[in-house]
Specification:
This protein has 162 residues and is α+β, with helices and mostly antiparallel strands. The chain contains three helices and four strands. It has helices at residues 32-37, 92-119, 134-146; strands at 8-23, 41-49, 54-63, 71-84. The chain has a four-stranded antiparallel beta sheet, with helices on one face. The longest helix is centred in the middle third of the chain and has 28 residues, at 92-119. The two termini are 34 Å apart.
Length: 162
């Protein structure tokens, strides 16, 4: 099939913070797959813009961040810089939807690759972040915002890297 290009373009992605720790398990024989399936995964995000040209999607991912289980404890933060195709005639609402669904998914996938590379030479081997239900992630974020416990996905305006 011929692919229709999205009007949303990833111009650049930057890793802004990375923390990694490995804690060996107490047992000699351990089912690594079963263990990593128990890891708590926490994801937060925000969408920022200075103007209507360049957009930032910030994503923070924590995997077993508090080290409650042996093995990997990872905390990663990254920012995707996005532009919209000049040929695309889309509304502000549509841009927001592209950023919320595609932008967040793109940034999570970038972080997935970074985390896989980081752990590829680790004692448990490569850790692949599981597939994420972005619809549920957005829903949970909106619930947290309505309770006053989180920043809006369209957070403060910051100057994008040019």
């Amino acid at each position: 099939m011929i692919v229709k290009r999205s009007p949303l373009d990833l111009a650049e992605f930057a890793l802004v913070n990375q923390q990694y720790k490995f804690t060996p398990p107490d047992e000699d024989k351990i089912d690594v797959g079963a263990l990593v399936d128990q890891y708590e995964i926490d994801i937060d995000f925000s969408i920022n813009t200075q103007d209507n040209i360049r957009f930032q999607v910030y994503v923070a991912i924590g995997v077993n961040k508090n080290g409650a289980l042996p093995g990997y404890a990872i905390s990663s933060e990254g920012v995707g810089f996005f532009d919209f195709s000049k040929a695309a005639d889309i509304s502000k609402k549509e841009k927001g939807e592209f950023l919320q669904f595609s932008g967040i998914s793109i940034c999570i996938n970038q972080m997935r690759g970074i985390i896989a590379t980081l752990t590829s030479n680790g004692p448990f081997g490569k850790y692949l972040l599981p597939s994420i239900d972005v619809n549920d992630l957005l829903s949970e974020k909106l619930k947290a915002i309505s309770k006053g416990g989180a920043k809006s996905p369209k957070a403060s305006k910051t100057s994008p890297k040019k």
